[in-house]
Amino acid sequence: MSDPYVKLDIVNEVGYIEFFHPAHNSLPGDVLAELAQTITDAGTNDAIKVIVLKSGGDRTFCAGASFKELININDDATGKVFFSGFANVINAMRKCSKFIIGRIQGKTVGGGVGLAAATDYCMATKFAAIKLSELNIGIGPFVVGPAIERKMGLSAMSQIAIDANTFYPAEWAKEKGLFTQVFESTEALDEAVKTAAEHLCTYNPEAMQEMKAIFWKGTEDWDNLLAERAAISGRLVLSEFTKETLKRFK
């Protein structure tokens, strides 16, 4: 099995940020922290004009938070830190002055849907079904909810949050505004991502920076908001209901 990683490759002024974890690209706290820092650093790197966020492997974009860490939370403080991982990545994406293109090659669950929603332009394959499964274990998509609601609307977000057992197809996610385009294969997706990213590099960087600021207007309180949401999840994960549910997964 390969070791988890986060890496940045710069090709033709495009910064390709790739994360990987052998457990279906689930993200433990250390990988989330490295991902947030890599996004922040890429945002200030003059050699990069546009960023692409992608994951390794073919089948799953991101399975969400690390279940192994989730079942080991035993106090409020640890819970808040755990759930702040995705908050920190989303806020890094929000504050980054450069456009971030999402490359979603396969299924994405929970926090992974939040990452896709926090990109500025998101492209996927037909295999990129999405699911918010948090309610199944007694919590909810509190941290990623604002990013998903911003991109898809409250109605769509609440639908998949309540229907926590169902994978919604990529075409549905496109109809709701999460994905801009859906492709038949990963190869077609990669070609389209490359073309789009390199074309954006020909535009005025200042214009793109100003546009990004406008796109994210109204989210200035997200540092506090997502921290508050992380605290809610951190409290709920200690509930008797969730503890009993998690025992069945051990």
Automatic annotation (TrEMBL):
InterPro entries in UniProt: ClpP/crotonase-like_dom_sf, Enoyl-CoA_hydra/iso, Enoyl-CoA_Hydratase/Isomerase
CDD domains documented for this protein: crotonase-like
One Pfam family of this chain: ECH_1
MF GO annotations: catalytic activity
Family as reported in the entry's similarity comment: Belongs to the enoyl-CoA hydratase/isomerase family.
Protein name in the entry: Enoyl-CoA hydratase
Biological source species: Hanstruepera neustonica
